[in-house]
Fold this sequence. Notes:
This protein is of the alpha/beta class. The chain has ten helices and twelve strands. Helix 4 (about 110-120) links the parallel strand 6 (about 100) and strand 7 (about 125-130).
Amino acid sequence: MAPVLTSPLVSTQWLADHLGADELVVLDASVHTSGTGLETTWRSAEDAYADRGHVPGARYADLLDDFSAPDGDVPFTRPSAERFESAAGRLGVTNTSTVVVYDDGVGQWSARLWWIFRSFGFDSVAVLDGGFTKWRDEGRPVRIGSLARSAQAPGSHAFLAGEERPLWVDHDRVRRATTGVEPAALVLAADDTALGDDHAPVIPGSTAIPVGALVDPDTNAYLKGRALEAAFAEVIGSDEIVTYCGVGTAACVDALALTVLGHDRVQVYDGSLIDWWRREPESVAS
């Protein structure tokens, strides 16, 4: 029987207690970056997963390619249902699995994959609070080398995506929010260092709540309780919240944190600022 989740986050102790459980699938979704703003480049972290080590039993989930649309206009465009099914199935995920995702950063990659799973109707998924950093710093076991990525036979249909939920928004929806036609609180999850010194204006009317404001720097884990609520004080009362960043990855950290706080009308702007800048070159931030 698969372990039962009670929160979008699981602790390192929870994972340690359940490693090896039937139908538990652990995924390392790390991606490595260089550069800032429009000069940012992304690369697979699969070599680091193998050489630096990973949680025992974890498989590498390629968020950059397998879990993104290959023909997307911007990096990390969400995949089709068919592509998602194929990628998840190859990693051993079935419709009765419990999935735990982590990364070796502050959680933007694992949160992105968590959001993708949920958007296709799969709720038995959680993010490892503190990620690989916390796991390693606590002296927990680490495995070197790779596990086979293909856990199911080619062509297997053991995993089927559900109907896609309205957890994403596009440029038109965000534009309606900026004009007041369809109000929503716009939350910028990227910090200035990620956007670069000379970045174009951000979306008008945004509230900046960067990922760094949500994570305890000593543990790499999410803030708890009132501290997390305080980080969202400016927007938590809004009926609808749209999060965004550079390409829609850090935005998922804010979306996860808001979900932990019980906000049930949160959406992520897929494409985020790269999409906005392409479509609104004359936009001026308020």
